[in-house]
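PROTEIN SPECIFICATION:
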Amino acid sequence: MSNQLIPLPEHAPPSVKHLPLAKQIDLWLELVTENDALVLSGLRAKIGVNGDLPTAYRAWYARRMANHDRMLATFAANLSRGN
């Protein structure tokens, strides 16, 4: 079914449950490291080679956290209303 949210078992990503905890942590760290590299690469593309990457990152992070805070406030307001 094309509108399924949960993939069929044969299409699901491989599980890491069978791996030792240390290997799971290594994989998680690799994922986080690669994600950071993508964020920094995207920022570098926006600001150019002469732009201030640390300042751009701080501004991006501040916007991201402000959006996250607004989302949490909306969530809390909806919970208090019973929605």
